[in-house]
Amino acid sequence: MSHSARTIIVAGIGVLALAACTSNTPKADPSDAAKTQAVSAGKNDEPGKKVKIGFSAPAADHGWMGAITKATQAEAKKYSDVELVVAEGTNDVNLQISQVETFINQKVDAIVLLPFDGAALTAVATKAMEAGITVVNVDREFGSPAAARTTVLGDNYGMGVSAGGYVCSQLKDKKDSIVAEIAGIDSLPLTQDRSKGFKDALAGCGLKVNNRVAAEFTVESGEKAAANLLQAAPKIDAIWNHDDDQGVGVMAAIKNSNRKDFFLVGGAGSANVMRDIKAGTSLVKATVVYPSTQGADGVRLARLLLQKKALGDLVEVEVPRKVQLFAPVVTKDNVDQYLPTAFES
């Protein structure tokens, strides 16, 4: 989704071929169709109908969340036909509901909404849709498909699968390896999905999670959880930490322990972790990306929907109902590809 959406014109090649067989019409040069498509490429980015889009997200008290809002604002500024109205980030569900109510009263054309709690924001998002406002749901799904026209998601289960797959690739010849996991907030479905993906991937190579602790996506909680883990597990071969922001605390605890008997895989894909991976001087050997472009992608999709355009790289003439972004593993071999879009912890 990082590439610009473009309009595709499907040429009537079959009709041209039939005409060539039954008349004196010159046979179509295949390059002509390519030229036609090339001419139309990029038209989605050309200025169109002016659109007003409201944006609401949780408070930027976390590097990833801050990057979401920053990237969303930067993306909107690229388009002269987009007016972005940004509500102040909040972790108060009632206040976020009020923000959406305000957008409805302002009669915005679309709302890009990353809800603090998807279930709690479902009713007001549905109200916006019923008022004729296009809602694009970002990251945390609503409780009803009727609450949004399109949803942009990361892949939490896929993060776990990617992390587990990397651990397997490094420990494939060591079946007695001890694997540890530092999760995020255990009550959240996203944490549960990440842990399930990790467990399932490890099972594929005969490994399992031997030691597990949960943190709270903060530096302080990461340090405390990691300290408890290191004290409880005298032998560890690999650790997967779900979140690079809490990973700052995790690394502090590891430094204090003087332990170097394992490697670590991060989560979300922060720039500081990627720089450590590139330098090759850290115990962190990889991280798994959870894209911070989702709000920016939401703005692009809202604009396409309002201007009645489609995704240029698809044959389908409508914007999909759901777009799920990939969770790639970043290592020293490919880190330069991902650093430019990484967030700062």
From TrEMBL:
GO terms for cellular component: cell envelope. Belongs to the bacterial solute-binding protein 2 family. Residues 1-28 form the signal peptide. Its main location: other. One of its GO terms (molecular function) is carbohydrate binding. Gene3D superfamilies: 3.40.50.2300. Keywords: Signal. It is found in: Cell envelope. This is Sugar ABC transporter substrate-binding protein. Transmembrane segments: none annotated. Residues 53-309 form the Periplasmic binding protein domain. PROSITE patterns: PROKAR_LIPOPROTEIN. Residues 24-45 are annotated as: Disordered. InterPro entries: Peripla_BP_I, SBP_2_dom. It holds the Pfam family Peripla_BP_4. The keyword Signal applies.
